[in-house]
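Protein in question passed on here:
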Amino acid sequence: MMLEPSIDALQTKVKSKYTLVILSAKRARQIKELNNLMIDHPKSQKNVGRALEEINAGKIVLENNETLAK
C-alpha cells in the first residue's frame, strides 16, 4: 500500500520529519474543529491525510516556527 502524498514529496516542503508530524497534527485538529478544508477533492478520508495533502499542495507553510495558511 502506497501512502499519498509520499514522504519524499512532503520533505521538499518541510525539511524535518518531526516538524512535518507536528504541523500535520495541528492542521488535522483545525480541520476537525473548523471543517475548513483548503483543497478540493482530497484523496484521504482522514483529517491527518487531508492535512498532509494541503501541505503537499503548498496551502500550509511553516515560517519562523509559525503555521501559516495561504
Observations:
- The mean pLDDT is 88.
- The chain has one domain: 7-69.
- The chain is about 45% helix and 10% strand.
- The radius of gyration is 11 Å.
